[in-house]
């Protein structure tokens, strides 16, 4: 009898222990949520709980969410801001350094709090990201505070939410919505700085064993006219790096681009003399397009002619001759090759494009 009762108790205990580890809905009616977005190469994530208005319209701001800093009656903080959500800390993380309303904030994960006022709000980014609410808020752990204007809305939002909007290459607006209030703030990143820092890290990893990675980093610097001295090192490593270097059109032309940006045109021209014979038809065509963009129509036409001699009477090289002659004002020859390219167009999109060329050329207009 004793053994039977002991066995039953053990089964009950084990069963209870396992039941406590099962996933169940969050209590309190404030579901968990996460919103993430990437700006440039910077990942931003907000984790929060979503309280509901639940019929309390007009009683949220300044009431349920008190103004300023208050004594919550629990924990060590006697002057706590709002947790910017419900239940556990609202947290926000940034994979790189960012700017919040123009003020710098280092990469990391932060507890996010708000000290609300009637017309504006103080946003607080705090090193404590693991607490429950703001009961243990300590201002000595604050990393950044910024003040933003509150915005009143016409329509009520039942459950608190965060959204990204007005996304640009280097910035976005994050807005907290709840009831008839919006609290927006701008996050921006230094695209050039963060991208270069990322390249430096990644080129030291297994990705650095590929010449194309060094070419990519060098080309980014050229395109943005920045970090050119280091870009020259990167481009040279793509050619000569141990186990990595490759001497081909892509690597040589990349170094030539860097040299041109540095004003070393003679060295750049010498490298291009080596590079062009190694180029594929498409690489040569693209190089000539770059010369056109650089306002070098005579040089571009010479490259288009060379490509057509190597790959005669095919669509790509005929289109190249169209562009080259057009850029130099020779619309007669441009029309001649455009009509040849028309018959060779591989699909409707290309055929339509050539038709557009012909129409412009007949009107005496450059197609480039």
Index terms:
six-stranded antiparallel beta sheet; four-stranded antiparallel beta sheet; Serine Threonine Protein Phosphatase 5, Tetratricopeptide repeat; single chain; alpha+beta; 11 helices
Report what the structure shows.
This protein has 368 residues and is an alpha+beta fold. It has two domains: 25-189, no CATH class; 192-362, Tetratricopeptide repeat domain (Serine Threonine Protein Phosphatase 5, Tetratricopeptide repeat, Alpha Horseshoe). The protein is 40% helix and 23% strand. The chain is built from eleven helices and ten strands. The chain has helices at residues 2-19, 191-202, 211-223, 228-240, 249-261, 265-275, 281-293, 297-310, 315-327, 331-344, 348-362, and strands at residues 32-39, 42-49, 91-94, 98-100, 103-105, 108-116, 120-126, 142-149, 151-165, 171-188. Helix 3 packs antiparallel against helix 4 (228-240) and helix 9 runs antiparallel to helix 10 (331-344). The chain is elongated, with a radius of gyration of 31 Å. The protein starts with a helix and ends in a 6-residue tail after the last helix. The model is unreliable at 1-19 (pLDDT under 50).
Blueprint of the fold:
Elements: H1 2-19, E1 32-39, E2 42-49, E3 91-94, E4 98-100, E5 103-105, E6 108-116, E7 120-126, E8 142-149, E9 151-165, E10 171-188, H2 191-202, H3 211-223, H4 228-240, H5 249-261, H6 265-275, H7 281-293, H8 297-310, H9 315-327, H10 331-344, H11 348-362
Antiparallel strand pairs: 1-2, 2-3, 3-6, 4-5, 4-10, 6-7, 7-8, 9-10
